[in-house]
Design goal:
This protein is of the alpha+beta class and 166 residues long. It has two domains: 62 residues, no CATH class; 89 residues, no CATH class. Strands 1-4-3-2 form a four-stranded antiparallel sheet, with no helix packed on it. Strand 3 and strand 4 form a beta hairpin. It is elongated.
Length: 166
């Protein structure tokens, strides 16, 4: 205390308390090494995921996981392939639903080989055209309309009830 000056420590503490109370170890920052290695020189913007009361707890880890899930990237590529040139398309072949495959994009200067799972397989033919396979790599469900996705789930549920006999 300084002689002749009234104590102002209590007033300063009351004013500064919101800045230092519950702020030490209250924020949690996490960086995904897998995303940092795949993104090149660009990075994702900061993202604040709401939900956890305290950092460095199990609930904070669940919120962190939800933040990674909310900011994941989606990519889907669809293209035509020829069967047996050189790989076989089909359930007994090299490429089918759920199997991993690699592909390149014509004109891509990075010469990157994209790896993803086959999510959709279509077979088409006609009198004028030869048999052709159309493969979709990746997952584009998050880019679809939410109402359309919900309707697909309702249709799948109704279909399963019909198969059971209801």
């Amino acid at each position: 205390m300084i002689p002749g000056v009234p104590p102002v420590g209590g007033v300063a503490e009351a004013i500064l308390r919101p800045f230092f109370e519950d702020t030490l170890l209250a924020w949690m920052v996490a960086r995904s090494a897998a995303r940092a290695n795949n993104s090149g020189w660009t990075r994702y913007f900061e993202y604040f995921q709401e939900g956890a009361g305290k950092a460095y707890t199990i609930s904070a880890l669940m919120v962190l996981r939800a933040g990674f899930w909310a900011t994941r990237s989606f990519a889907a590529h669809e293209f035509s392939v020829r069967d047996a040139a050189p790989y076989l398309v089909g359930q007994k072949g090299h490429l089918w639903l759920g199997k991993r495959g690699g592909y390149t994009i014509r004109g891509d200067r990075s010469y990157r080989i994209y790896m993803d799972r086959v999510s959709k397989v279509s077979l088409s033919w006609s009198r004028d055209e030869a048999v052709g396979w159309t493969l979709t790599f990746g997952d584009d469900r998050a880019l679809q309309d939410p109402v359309a996705r919900a309707w697909e789930q309702i249709e799948a549920f109704v279909s399963s009830l019909q198969q059971v006999g209801f």
